[in-house]
Amino acid sequence: xSTIGIIGAGAIGSAFxxxxxxxxxxxxxxxxxxPDSLKDLARDLGSSITPGTREQAAAQDIVxxxxxxxxxxxxxxxxxxxxGRIVIDANNxxxxxxxxxxxxxxxxxxxxxxxxxxxxxxxxxxNHLPAHLISDDPQAEGGRRVLFFAGDDAHAKSAVSGxxxxxxxxxxxxxxxxxxxxxxxxxxxxxxxxxxxxxG
Length: 200
What we know:
Blueprint: E1 4-7, H1 11-22, E2 27-30, H2 39-45, E3 49-51, H3 54-58, E4 62-65, H4 72-76, E5 86-89, H5 109-114, E6 121-125, H6 131-135, E7 144-151, H7 154-166, E8 170-173, H8 177-184, E9 197-198
Protein name: Pyrroline-5-carboxylate reductase catalytic N-terminal domain-containing protein
Keywords: Oxidoreductase
Domain Pyrroline-5-carboxylate reductase catalytic N-terminal: 3-93
């Protein structure tokens, strides 16, 4: 199984960590304030989630990034080239308290994000649902909750799809980052905040 890192311990990062912990999957979680600030969260999540530095989280095989949009450049600056490793873009170009869409100059948020993670194979995922639907039991409604994903690298998408399935969700491939990533992007994506359940 691939090693997993999480950069960002807010709502989405913590929800993803909880989903991993529920299946006993190990991950290193990091934030801007350092490992000591995450001890209580890690204790609540369980022994499989370890607080670490940003660099430790970024060094894993699969790295999920979930940070406020305006803070992404600072959160990712100075990290080494990702060298073909997989980075999950769980971000949206909007944030509290104003919820005003960021100016993307005609690009999708994942295209902008990809520029911040040189060498990464970027997959958009875990961004289109409220955090509690990621941390809650994905089979609570009698089927499997759907998670969309998109990316330009088939092998990276296959790995993320496998992870989605492993933690109990049903993954749907939306295609390439430019088109598929835009469909699930908040705001404006036609599939954003759409809570679907796959039965059978």
